[in-house]
């Protein structure tokens, strides 16, 4: 496989939005209220990209996954009901989604590994994330990859499960 993880470009908005719409529909079919309130939307993706925080997973030239990756930029994380493992610099991921055509191949896990590498390449040893209480698939991925449940954070009035993984220098992905 020819997978790469790179910064998204404005010209990528259309395939990214297609992937997010598929994920929004999957969440709806799963009976979840996550992403059922008009968020995320193309404007959110455009802002991610303009701020240099939008990333795509590609198979050759085809965009097959998307995530926003931010450094130290999640104000609600300061108000966690619980405790983070660290209080140092951190990378946070949002809007992780994989194309319908590529489900079941472990690509969300691969994207998280790339995000961990991004953190390490910036000398940051903490990755934080959150997910909806009913997003069992994402919680399983966090558990498999060694993320620790730290408590709850609130987005747009809804509680989310918050996770953190502390990285070691030797965690760098060998590709």
Automatic annotation (TrEMBL):
Q: Which InterPro entries match?
A: Acyl_CoA_acyltransferase, GNAT_dom, YpeA/RimI_acetyltransf
UniProt cross-references to Pfam families, sorted A to Z: Acetyltransf_1 (PF00583)
Where's the N-acetyltransferase domain?
3-170
Gene3D superfamilies the UniProt entry points to: 3.40.630.30
Which keywords, in A-to-Z order, does the entry hold?
Acyltransferase, Transferase
- What are the recorded GO MF terms, alphabetically? acyltransferase activity, transferring groups other than amino-acyl groups
Q: Which domain of life is it from?
A: Bacteria
Entry's PROSITE patterns? GNAT
Q: Please give the name of this protein.
A: L-amino acid N-acyltransferase YncA
Source organism lineage?
Bacteria, Pseudomonadati, Bacteroidota, Flavobacteriia, Flavobacteriales
């Amino acid at each position: 496989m020819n997978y790469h993880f790179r910064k998204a470009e404005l010209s990528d908005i259309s395939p990214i939005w297609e992937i997010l719409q598929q994920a929004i529909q999957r969440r709806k079919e799963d009976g979840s209220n996550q992403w059922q309130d008009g968020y995320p939307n193309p404007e959110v993706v455009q802002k991610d990209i303009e701020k240099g925080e939008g990333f795509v997973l590609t198979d050759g030239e085809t965009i097959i996954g998307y995530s926003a990756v931010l450094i130290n930029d999640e104000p609600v994380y300061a108000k966690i009901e619980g405790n983070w493992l660290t209080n140092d610099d951190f990378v946070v991921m949002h809007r992780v989604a994989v194309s319908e055509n590529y489900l079941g191949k472990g690509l969300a896990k691969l994207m998280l590994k790339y995000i961990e590498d991004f953190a390490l390449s910036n000398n940051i040893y903490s990755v934080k994330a959150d997910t909806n209480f009913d997003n069992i698939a994402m919680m399983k991925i966090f558990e498999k990859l060694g993320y620790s449940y730290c408590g709850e954070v609130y987005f747009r009035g809804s509680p989310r499960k918050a996770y953190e993984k502390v990285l070691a220098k030797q965690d760098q992905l060998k590709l």
